[in-house]
Automatic annotation (TrEMBL):
Protein name in the entry: PqqD family protein
InterPro entries: PQQD, PqqD_sf
Amino acid sequence: MTGRPRLRPGVLWVDVADERVGYDEQAGRLHLLSPVGAAVADLLESGRSVDEAVDQLTGASGRTRGEVERAVHDVLAALAAAGLLQDRPGPAGPGPGGPAG
């Protein structure tokens, strides 16, 4: 997955220690993000692209870019499978709103 995926609106997220818990009232389900999942979600929600999130986590973790990229893509796949990502990610242009102009 590329671009700037975002968590789906309508899920209440609460940070608990280094994890994140989400409650989807419509589906009546709880979701738990691991510390890695919570870090990925934080970066994406702050407007970073997938590549920017990988770069930042690589620098912070001391792991190789390939290892971090696999972990980020695993988190995104799990979020998508659980229906926790917006149906249509935003454009990959500059800033959270996409290309300027």
